[in-house]
Design goal:
heterodimer, A: 7-stranded mixed beta sheet, 4-stranded antiparallel beta sheet, B: 0% helix, globular
Chain lengths: 112, 115
């Protein structure tokens, strides 16, 4: 079974731009969560989607948003990028909300 | 709030040495506990998990036991290899009824194994 896939793997943007990251979960998984990883803050939860609805959101500004489609694929969007948004963005999927989460390889975003 | 505390790294060991990475947690309710591993340039891989007290998770020679009385989930391996060099993360999720299933991570422990 294919794992979680994330595209693109690498991105370079400039301050003020916006970016959209994509995540395709493991086949049959309906829950998708997003995490941000930075050297300073470590791994932080962004949001969780299940059945196309955001179920939970971490402590991030409104510039960070996401959505989930009927096929469980998910996208996250960051508007008005700031230098501090440079990070590895990880997507994780699980069969159900309470099930074990499996991670993709991440998208590394660099904001210049 | 819920939190996970891991031993500070980096940890450097010789091949075939014994590994222990300490992890303690603070949580309301009855969390599930996990160890994830991150190899350079990659995402997180699930290493092992335990969902209730006294459960032992094991995989690839690694083991960890869910100790409710000491709120701990220490990772151990009897004989490390160079290929075990990576960053190890201890994490928890709250159980059913909490309404939230996000993973809360420790800061990670970098392990380097030298030949």
């Amino acid at each position: 079974k294919a794992g979680v896939t994330q595209t693109p793997r690498y991105l370079i943007k400039t301050r003020g731009q916006q970016v959209t990251l994509s995540c395709s979960p493991i086949s049959g998984h309906r829950s998708v969560s997003w995490y941000q990883q930075t050297p300073g803050q470590g791994l932080q939860f962004l949001f969780e989607y299940f059945s196309e609805t955001q179920r939970n959101k971490g402590n991030f500004p409104g510039r960070f948003s996401g959505r989930q489609f009927s096929n469980s694929r998910s996208e996250m969007n960051v508007s008005t990028l700031e230098l501090g948004d440079s990070a590895l963005y990880l997507c994780a999927s699980s069969f159900g909300r309470q099930e074990t989460q499996y991670f993709g390889p991440g998208t590394r975003l660099l904001v210049l | 709030g819920d939190s996970v505390t891991q031993m500070e790294g980096p940890v450097t060991l010789s091949e075939e040495a014994f590994l222990t990475i300490n992890c303690t947690y603070t949580a309301t309710g009855y969390p599930s506990l996990f160890w994830y591993v991150q190899y350079p340039g990659e995402g997180l891989q699930l290493l092992l998990k335990a969902t209730k007290a006294d459960d032992k998770g094991s995989n690839k020679g690694f083991e960890a036991t869910y100790r409710k009385e000491t709120t701990s989930f220490h990772l151990e391996k009897g004989s490390v290899q160079v290929s075990d060099s990576a960053v190890y993360f201890c994490a928890l999720t709250l159980g059913s009824g909490a309404g939230s299933y996000q993973l809360t991570f420790g800061k990670g422990t970098k392990l380097s194994v030298i030949p």
